[in-house]
């Protein structure tokens, strides 16, 4: 008469879903980044310290690269320390407790939290996706992800140091980045339904040391590569080839360079300032769009939020960055 309770296979299912090994996902990028750093720095040192004769342009190129890296690297280290501290010690539900409950004000409030949570763009993607998974509205998550890398105090300070002759650039960058991030978030208000569950298995809670080492290695690789490209454009390409004479084309060109170079926001101001022939609004566009859209960010957002949301965010970010840069430049410059 008594029926035997059915045996459930939930543990097997759980084990099946836990099967993918994370080390294979984590270790390979770290090794490739180390190789990229060693190769890039090796090229610089060979050109800079080699006793064999090199052309004057080659010597000028290596000097510019080294000077840019030396200027920016301390800020990269400091930014990695702060980013690692946020990732390792910030409670996951912290932002949810302090953000306003209203739908409208949550977006600018989440964007403004970037001032108090200094994270680079690499850290902002997993932090934002984790906040959305824990109940934060998708629009607020997008606002934080896009704004935090460009408006945090370290980025503002580095921009001021790079543009000491025109300190208003730091204010312009903050304003344009904040406005652009909020505009994209409002436009994407319903664009992130169930896709946040996608990133649960990609990011585990790392220790401070793990996060710091990973961020320094990855950021330095992109910094060195970006400085090499910027110096090459400055030294080897004639000034007449780049469209600096046309404001619209120069803005487009600098935005494309920012997306390709993928430089960390703590250091991109020094690279932007090195394009002395580019108009100031074009340099500002470089700094505004870079923390929002670049090659590495598209890949990270694709894995965290899915292709549909990523494509929408990327397209809107480019338009919003260009529009915000134009308006802020007209007002402040």
Describe this structure in words.
With 333 residues, the protein is mainly α. It has one domain. It contains 15 helices and no strands. Helix 7 packs antiparallel against helix 9, helix 9 (168-187) packs antiparallel against helix 15 and helix 11 runs parallel beside helix 13. The protein starts with 9 loop residues before the first helix and ends with a helix. The model is unreliable at 6-28 and 194-203 (pLDDT under 50). Its main location: membrane. Belongs to the UPF0718 family. The chain crosses the membrane at residues 31-50, 62-90, 110-132, 139-163, 169-188, 221-241, 247-272, 311-332. This is Permease.
Identify the notable features of this structure and list them briefly.
single chain, 333 residues, mainly alpha
Q: What would a concise description of this structure say?
A:
By secondary structure, this protein is mainly α. 71% of the residues lie in helices and 0% in strands. The protein has one domain (31-332).
Approximately how much helix is present in the residues? over 70%
Q: What is the H/E order?
A: HHHHHHHHHHHHHHH
In angstroms, what is the radius of gyration?
22 Å
Structural class from helices and strands?
mainly alpha
Distance between the termini: 87 Å
Topology of this structure?
Layout: H1 10-17, H2 23-49, H3 56-89, H4 94-98, H5 103-112, H6 121-133, H7 138-151, H8 153-162, H9 168-187, H10 208-235, H11 247-261, H12 268-274, H13 280-289, H14 295-305, H15 307-332
Pfam families: ArsP_1
Family: Belongs to the UPF0718 family.
Subcellular location: Cell membrane
